[in-house]
Specification:
The protein contains eleven helices and 14 strands. It is 32% helix and 24% strand. It is α/β, with parallel strands linked by helices and 390 residues long. Strand 9, helix 8 and strand 10 form a beta-alpha-beta unit. Helix 3 runs parallel beside helix 4 and helix 5 packs across helix 6. The mean pLDDT is 91.
Length: 390
């Protein structure tokens, strides 16, 4: 237990509970939800496992220095007096990102500059050399968060955002972020026991994330690197032990995961991305117009899609949503249908009343993740049968 330390995982608005559940299932302790983040505790091996396996985390930070400062001089001194040789080597590059709130500090770029000066000056005093700054691809990326007097320094364990899974080489216009795709799949309640359909699959992100969940494939298995691989205490043997342990949990999904798209270019991209993720055996995609399709079989279906929000595909967007609703009612009985969209007016044209509406953000766009249960027969008959059973 003495080797455990505090960490925090960042996520999207409204997904804190989902991330906390993931962390608990993975084995984290002292889990505490915040605003778009979740605090937790684990050791070095768990830090490796969290980066490799978490589907709903954007980034994982390791706090290492907490202090108070009310002015530039106090900030500089606190940074300067820290033993930076415990965090980074003289030949490693570094960068600092700062976020500041409150009355004492107001310019994040200036704060980052002063912190950089303090680190460089400390190395120059101790070793007569200074490390270099690399803002684009540093060996060590630091995060400074200041709220009034309280300052927290963290080291980025992930590197690039964890939505960079490594499998998506080809995208359509306005692709869905991979982490957000995983978040909405989990938020929709899909448990991997029903067939899964994305009827407007685009570049295949939702299908790929669903298949990786069903197969228990680590979310970031295809990434080229993590930031911790450049740390002075990097344990490659431990990392591969953890990776192999997770790979031993992989199974073949017992359900059908499939998608449609009427655009040949979208289908080509999704096919290539699925191949990059080595999921060709688990996902089937076909060129088809959802509006002309029929549900396959009588078993329950889980449908989830990210349709166009505006006019980018041409035609009338309200008409597109109306056709979508008509197709669900006509051809997809016994289906749990979920849709994410920022076009609240178009959603009204579906002709279906959502049983759930969940507020989310897709980038800067405020969206709703809506649930439309489509029953076998009418909703009235379905409710009557439930009442008779009870």
């Amino acid at each position: 237990m003495e080797n455990n330390f505090k960490m925090l995982a960042k996520t999207f608005y409204g997904m804190e509970e989902i991330l906390a559940e993931e962390l608990l299932e993975l084995g984290a302790t002292n889990i505490r939800k915040g605003n778009r983040l979740v605090h937790f505790v684990g050791d070095k091996g768990f830090m490796y496992k969290a980066n490799l396996c978490l589907r709903t985390a954007i980034k994982i930070l390791k706090p290492f220095h907490e202090f108070c400062a009310e002015n530039e001089a106090e900030l500089y001194d606190q940074i300067y007096n820290f033993d930076w040789k415990t965090v980074m080597g003289i030949n490693q590059t570094f960068a600092i990102d700062s976020v500041v709130f409150g009355k004492y500090f107001s310019h994040s770029l200036y704060v980052s500059q002063r912190c950089k000066d303090a680190i460089v000056d400390r190395f120059r005093k101790d070793l007569q050399k200074r490390p270099s700054v690399d803002t684009s691809h540093p060996d060590i990326r630091l995060h400074l968060h200041i709220f009034d007097r309280k300052c927290n320094l963290s080291i980025d364990t992930s590197g690039e955002s964890l939505h960079h899974r490594g499998y998506r080489k080809f995208t359509n216009i306005a692709p869905l972020n991979e982490v957000l795709a995983a978040c909405i799949i989990k938020r929709s309640g899909w448990d991997g026991l029903k067939d899964f359909l994305d009827p407007m699959c685009g570049s295949g992100t939702i299908l790929i994330e669903a298949a990786m969940m069903a197969a228990r494939i680590p979310a970031n298995l295809n990434r080229n690197e993590f930031a911790f691989e450049k740390w002075i205490d990097w344990d490659e043997t431990l990392f591969h032990k953890i990776k192999n342990s997770q790979l031993n949990r992989v199974v073949s999904p017992g359900v059908k995961i499939y998608g449609f798209d009427k655009a040949p270019s979208a289908l080509d991209k999704s096919t290539l991305n699925i191949k990059n993720a080595s999921l060709e055996d688990f996902i089937q995609v076909n060129q088809a117009n959802f509006f002309n399709s029929q549900k396959l079989g009588e078993l329950p279906l889980h449908l989830l899609t990210n349709p166009p929000y505006g006019e980018r595909l041409g035609g009338n967007i309200n008409n597109l949503y109306q056709k979508f609703g008509d197709t669900l009612k006509r051809s997809y009985p016994n289906t749990d249908a979920w849709m994410i969209s920022s076009n609240f007016d178009a959603l009204k044209h579906l002709g279906l009343r959502p049983s759930k509406k969940i507020k989310l953000f897709n980038g800067k766009l405020e969206t709703r993740l809506c649930y439309f249960p489509v029953y076998k027969g009418t909703k009235k008959i379905h409710k009557l049968k439930d009442k008779q059973k009870s």
